[in-house]
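W.,

You were right to be curious about this one. When I first looked at the sequence I had no strong expectations either way, so I just let the prediction run and decided to look at it fresh. Below is the sequence, 377 residues in total, followed by the output.
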Amino acid sequence: MTRTPPALPADTVRTLAARWLPRLGDGDFVVSPVGLWLALGAVAAGARGRTAGELYELLGIEGEAAAGAVTGVGRRLAGADGIAVATGVWARVPVREEYRRGLPGVRFGELGAGAQDALDAWVREATGGRIDRLPLDLDGSEELVLLNALALKASWAIAFPRHLTRDEPFTDGHGDTRPVPTMRRRIPAASVRYVDGTTVVELPCAGEGAALVRFVLGAEGAGPGEVLPAAWAGPGDRKRLAADAADLLLPRFTLRTRTGAHPHLTALGLDLALRPGADFSGLSGDPLFIEDVVQEAVVEVAEEGVEAAAVTQVRMARSRAVPRPGTVERIAFDRPFGVVVLDAEGELPLFAGWRSSAPPDAQPLGVRPLDARPPGA
C-alpha cells in the first residue's frame, strides 16, 4: 500500500542530504540535495512493490503519493523569488498516462533523432545558461531520461561593498596558505549562530520569499559531513552570538562539480531500483531500472549576490529484451491431406500418399511388428 507523504517533506530532503554528504569526500564539491530528491522522487512515482518500498526508505515518498509530494515541492520552489525549477522526461518506451497525469508540471517528450541537442538546449534554458549541456551524454542505450533542473539568481538584501574586497590569507585542506580575494561587511548579531562548535552565518537575499544563504565554518579539521548539516539545525540546537555585531570576511568563490551519484545510492540502501528486475510498472509497461544518476552543479558567490544551478540526470535502461508477441499460425490437418516420403537428399519420392477419408482410431506405434501380416493375408 502506498504511504501518504508529509505535506511538505522537508525532513526527508534533509535526511537524504545528511546521509549523502559524508560520501562526497573532503575535496571541493557542490551538489543539490533537493535536486536529487526531486529527480528520484519523480522516478519513485512510477515505482511499485518492493522497489517502491526501497525508495521510500531513502526518500520518504513512494508510488502514487510521490507524485503529489514532488509536485508540491516543485511549486513551492518555483513560487520563490529568484528560483526556477523544471523537470522533464524523455523516453523511447511508452509512458503510462496515469503517470503523466500525476506529474502535471513535468514536460514529456520522446528520445528520437536529435535528442542530444534538444536536451542540451533544455538544460541551458532551464539553468539560464549556467550549465551548458547534459551531465551525461546520450549513447543510444537509454530507454528513458529524467532531468531535474534547479536555478537560483539572487541579490543580497545588503550587498558587500566592492571597495572593501581585498586579498586575505586562506589555508586550504592540505594546510597550504595563500591570499584570496575576500569580501567584507558588518552583519548584525542575529545573522550568526553556533551549532555544536560550527559557526553559521545567514545572509538573506532580496525579494519576497527569497532564498536564505547560510555559510558554515566548522572546527579545524572537521569534514563536510559533520559541518554542513549545522545549516539546517533546529532552534533548540543553536546558540546566539554574544557580541552586538560581527565583521564577516567571506572569500569570493565559484564551485562547479559533476557528481556520479549511482554508487552513493547503492551505499545508501538502494538495490532493486538499480538493477534489472526493478518494478517501475507505474511509469511504463516496459521493464525499466535506474542505470545511472549524475548531477552537475555550480554556485557563484560575489559582492552583489549568489547564482547557482544544478541538473540531475536519471538514466533508465530496459531490464531485459522485451519479448515480442509471437506470431502463431494454426495449421490443422482436418481435411484430405497427402503424405510423401523422400530419400535423404529430399529428391526421390519414395512414397506418396493421400488421405481422403477420416482415419480410424489410431493404434499406438509399435503395437504391430513391422513384419506382421495383415489379417487374412
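Here's what jumped out at me. The chain is about 20% helix and 30% strand. And, maybe more interesting for your project: Residues 321-328, 336-359, 361-377 have pLDDT under 50 and may be disordered.

Coffee later to discuss?

I.
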